[in-house]
Amino acid sequence: FKMALLIPSLLLTASLSWWDNGHMLVGEVARQSISKDTVDKINAILEEWSKDYPDRSSMVPATTWPDYLKCAHQASYCPDGLPAIETMNAWHFSDIPYNPDNLKLTEEQLTGWQQQPSANWFLSQSTYTFRNSKTDWGWGFMLRFYLHIIGDLHQPLHCSSGYFNDSKFGDLHNGDMGGNLIKINTQYPGITNLHALWDAAGGVYQENAPLDAAGQARLQKNATDLINKFPRENLRDYNKTEVTSCWANQYDSCESVYDNWANQSHNLGIKYGYTGASQNFTPPENYINNVILISKERITLGGYRLADVISTIANNIPVPNTTTKIATSPESTRPARATDPKHMLRNYKIGFYAACAGLGVCLIVLIIIGLQRKNQKIQYGVLGKDDMI
Fold it and tell me: In a 3-state reduction of DSSP, which class is residue 161?
């Protein structure tokens, strides 16, 4: 979730500077829901990249890393580095079409969200890595994205693209980019479209990574409050066995699970996002209250599901420094070869043949030099008996 500000006493810039807080809350809810040993395993992998990302190399702050990669300009949520990498942008959303005006859509608009690249596609692809990867790098890369993308999949307008051509929304027959093209009026700078309003989660959280000690304490308290307010058993979409069931089948990528999660978010986007909205409308208080309530619930549900996935894959997490390397240095194989009799005999033969070949070449060179000297002396009439070959 990209958090922005909707609190009268504070101003919001166009940076939408709250997005870190929502993702960190998903991670913190998950962290509080799994064992310390499992958290330590996750952190050990993430810390492998701590030299380059010192503030985003443990489970909770690492949830912000994929958004940080997109930073190209200095801002409150882009304090340093500025990697300017947007190659994986499409992994952050699933554009399930909402087409109330029954417009004619292309095959890509209808089914593209189920194909690559999309958020649910990435999450299903990660199953293969978590089952098979034996490298720190593979786990580090996919974990960092997984921690983030699972949060994106639980934001309703990250899983919706509206297609309209009517008096309510105007001509958006090519799609509204998850509400980005539906303009709204608020008194807060930066909240100018429907997507931004939902990315703001109603403005209830307001801190960016990295957090100081006080900020971490607030984050932990907020996550605990969410867990208390929305226990697993009270969440209608939560299923405690769906992750373990698909993981138990080694040929199942859990694609149907992630598709289902995307559809749940999409349905909420229609019911609470598009319903009651229109082009250039001013969101009333009851609309914003729904944004706050739904966002809190989805953040908590995303955290529970992240905890379920991490607990399920925990036994496959490699221990850093003992994982299989992509390449093996020549030095690491030499001692074993040195004690192999067949290998030693082969080396001796090669050396012997090389020596003989070298001596043969030297002999031929000496003969050629001698013949040249003889020809020169014959030419100048100075050939003596010592020059005979």
Answer: strand
pTM of the model: 0.78
Query: Is 10 strand, coil or helix?
Result: coil
Contact between 56 and 64 under an 8 Å Cβ cutoff? The reply is: yes
Tell me what pLDDT residue 354 has. 55
Query: Which amino acid type is present at position 308?
Result: D
97-98 vs 161-162, strand pairing mode:
parallel
Q: Widest CA span of the chain, in angstroms?
A: 121
3-state SS, residue 160: coil
Structure tokens at 384: 């003596």
Task: Give per-residue pLDDT as tens, 38-85.
Answer: 999 999 999 999 999 999 999 999 999 998 899 888 877 787 778 999
Question: 269 pLDDT exceeds 70?
Answer: yes
- CA distance readout (Å), 351 to 331, 358, 360: 21, 10, 14
Note the residue count of the chain.
Answer: 389
The encoded tokens of residue 223 equal 């996550």
Residues ≥6 apart with Cβ < 8 Å to 310: 30, 34, 38, 42
* Rounded distance between C-alpha atoms, residue 116 and residue 105, angstroms: 18
Rounded average pLDDT over 119-124: 95
Neighbours of 213 (CB within 10 A): 7
